[in-house]
Amino acid sequence: MVKVGTWNLENLFRPGPSGPSTDAAYTAKLEALAQAIGQLSPDVLAVQEVGDPDALKDLAALLDGYEHTATAAPDGRGIRVGFLPGRRSTRGGHAHIFGPPSGSGTGTRACARRARSPSSRLRRGPRTGRLNHVTSRPA
């Protein structure tokens, strides 16, 4: 069985105009996220509201067993979705991150980009991971 988790990172940016005002606040946010996610210990973690892909890499570095990250292209605000495939559930492959179908009339923002990751194959053979970001905010 593969354990899949999801977490809203609430505008995860490195310190600066869009992120925390200090390095200490950024470190505290990363540590709190790492502790909560570490307790869940999912095999694959889908994340929302990634502002800076490098900030997601910083978070992954604090998590045991999450060496790779993948993110979609940003929406108009610079926010992405992404995922972290855990080491114990992966062995190479690829993943697709995509938005809703065009013309869906749902008022969603499409976060679309094919993301290649060396780590999205599940234990029992190759799998394709897919993540769709749908938000209630108007497009």
From TrEMBL:
Matching InterPro entries: Endo/exonu/phosph_ase_sf, Endo/exonuclease/phosphatase
Entries under Pfam families matching the protein: Exo_endo_phos
Domain Endonuclease/exonuclease/phosphatase: 5-94
Annotated Basic residues bias: 111-127
Disordered: annotated segments: 85-139
Domain of life: Bacteria
Descriptive protein name: Endonuclease/exonuclease/phosphatase domain-containing protein
Native species: Pseudonocardia adelaidensis
